[in-house]
Amino acid sequence: TGSIKPWKRILLYGPPGTGKSRLAQAVSSEIKSTFYCVSSSDLVSSWVGESEKLIKELFHHATKQTGRSVVFIDEIDSICRQRSSREEEYSRRIKTELLKQMEGADTAHLSDKIFLLCATNCPWELDSAFLRRFQKRIFIPLPDKKARIELMKIHTKDNKIVMSEEDWTVLGEQTEGYSGSDLANLTLESLFCPIRELQTSKKWKQKDDQFVPCKEDEDADLKASIVEIPADKVRPREVTLNDFLSALKTHRKTVTQEEIQKFENFTKSMGEQG
Q1: 125 and 163 co-located in one domain
Q2: Is 56 found in the same domain as 168?
Q3: Same domain for 35 and 113?
Q4: End-to-end CA separation in angstroms for the chain
Q5: I want to staple 163 with a disulfide (CB 3.0 to 4.6 A). Which of 66, 104, 123, 167 is the partner?
Q6: Does residue 41 fall inside a structural domain?
Q7: What's the number of CA atoms in the CB half-sphere (13 Å) around residue 274?
Q8: Strand partners, 81
Q9: pTM of the entire structure?
Q10: Alpha-carbon distance 123 to 265, whole Å?
Q11: Structural domain harbouring 47
């Protein structure tokens, strides 16, 4: 390929809960590399000089592997914020050491050893010296309707769900603006709805030698509280669209439109769509 070489320093940015960490893991698995996953907090120590040592050891260890290593630093903005006159000396030293290691990993004999991935929820706060060193700055957006439906189906695959494709479509529309973590929390709340009903139900229908709660306007095979029924004879009903719609009332999206606009503005000027 001559002088054409693959990118080795990539910044992933986007709202919280969009799967940036999982994407980094997937990249590492795809290229069958050693994966180093650290948060910026793992690299910060209260002892003078210790943070620089931790950063140096991380990159040194990664270069000693027989194959390629993927170094993933999450929440990189915590240690690489824009410089200011009020910045502490230890913060400057951490930045200097990280820049030094990034440049060192790009030297001829190490250029194929380390693939650096970093993630942030606020790329506009990064020091420009670091932004310049990322060959690609990729925006990881909120999931679209199709992805939201697929994510919720994944979260519910081991549970008894009674929902048609039309129901899933309705739910996909109702969850616009939700992040992956928002959807995980919403799904968990929905799955708990039938379980909570077990505690308050007084009317039960018999299905396959077990008792399932039934609605007040339905005929019951048994009238009793849950404590009066053997534990192995009770099971929750299936989860339905109504459980999700009920959960939506208390589990709302956590990313604001203003935040989305900031990401879009940054992408136009400094990044690219993922």
Answers
A1: no
A2: no
A3: yes
A4: 25
A5: 167
A6: yes
A7: 21
A8: 126
A9: 0.84
A10: 11
A11: 9-141+262-270
Average pLDDT, the chain: 90
The residues, any chain, with a CB within 8 Å of residue 215's CB and separated by 6 or more, are 203
Dist CA 273 CA 267 (whole Å): 7
The verdict on 150 and 133 lying in the same domain is no
Task: Quote the pLDDT of residue 106.
Answer: 67
Report if residue 51 sits inside a domain.
yes
Provide the pLDDT for residue 4.
61
CATH number at residue 211: 1.10.8.60
Q: What is the C-alpha to C-alpha distance for residues 68 and 66, in angstroms, rounded to an integer?
A: 7
Percent of the chain with pLDDT over 90: 62
List CB contacts of 260: < 8 A, sequence separation 6 or more: 15, 142, 177
In whole angstroms, give the CA distance from residue 196 to residue 188: 12
Pairing relationship of beta strands 114-120 and 34-39 according to DSSP bridges:
unpaired
Residue 14: per-residue pLDDT: 96
Q: Tokens in use for 206? A: 């018999």
Parts of the chain with a pLDDT under 70: 1-5, 46, 48, 84-85, 87, 105-111, 274
- Examine the domain organization and report whether 88 and 55 are in the same domain: yes
Domains of the chain: total? 2
1 found inside a domain: no
